[in-house]
Amino acid sequence: MVSLIATQGTLFDLETVLDYGQSILNVAQELTKSLIEQRTISTRTIQAQMNRYFLGTAASGAWQWRKYYYICVKKVTSLYWSRR
Questions:
Q1: CA dihedral for 24, 29, 32, 37, sign (positive or negative)
Q2: pTM
Q3: Residue 76 in contact with residue 31, Cβ under 8 Å?
């Protein structure tokens, strides 16, 4: 599948897609650590982690609240419950 995508070309660069996926996992892992340590997760905490792993702010266009916030929350939930 990857070779097919690479030869046909896509709207997205494969490396970019993989980087975004890794960024989402990194944010989810950091937020899961906070949950396990029973620390409160605020909007500010989420925003700081997103800025850190996406290498920029939502205002600069590095990530979008609506899109990635929900993805990360879903991933955090699944990571948290799988570790329990």
A1: negative
A2: 0.64
A3: yes
CA–CA dist 81, 71 (Å, integer): 16
Per-residue pLDDT tens over the stretch 34-81: 888 888 888 888 889 889 988 889 888 888 888 776 776 777 777 777
Q: Which residues does 79 contact at the CB level (< 8 Å), separation at least 6?
A: 28, 29, 32
Which residue blocks in the chain are alpha helix, DSSP H?
A: 2-8, 14-36, 43-53, 65-83
Identify the CA nearest to 73 among candidates 54, 50, 56: 50
Distance CA 37, CA 7 (A): 46
| Residue 47 in tokens | 């925003």
Tokens at residue 18, please?
Answer: 């993989």
